[in-house]
Amino acid sequence: MSDTTPTGRPGRYPRTTGGLIGSILVLVVAVLAIVLVRGTFRETPTYEPEHVDYLALVTSVQQAGLTPAYPPRLPEGWYVKDASFTPGDRPVLDLAMTTADDRFAGLHQEDRDVDDLVDTYVGGDATEGDEVHVDGSVAPVWQTFSDPGGDHAFAAQLGEETVLVYGSASEDELRALVESLTTAELTP
Description:
- By secondary structure, this protein is an alpha+beta fold.
- It has helices spanning 17-40, 54-63, 114-121, 171-180, and strands at residues 79-86, 92-98, 104-110, 127-128, 132-133, 141-146, 152-158, 161-167.
- 28% of the residues lie in helices and 24% in strands.
- It is elongated.
């Protein structure tokens, strides 16, 4: 009788480069199929930024006895995306607006030097341009600034405070905003 005992060596299967590439391709196709199926049944949420009621903030600032400069209405397609007021010995009013073509326009009012505000909000490399006379505005004379990145600013003194209108909006849009500014008393 012959004794047939296993030798203890496992069976082998062929390992080829073609088999490896085939396995990778199957895995890639499976991952792409999962991504496509998930994307088909997923709803992409739309983002609608909040439109802030800045006139309510202006009303409360006026009720505190201060005189903020503000636009009584915004141009078509513009909205205020952020509005803040910091009370105290040196109050600060900030309005951050988005234009109809999704550019930024800001209004900042504070008891601070014009050059400091321009450095902070426009940039240290901003250069001063010609003065602009704006009849009927909250200030008759405005300084202009521009930086190499395309930002523009208009600055004027309103009593002890500096009003700065600045942003990436076009110079014409910012000038129109400056022309619209008022300090008229709002009724609560």
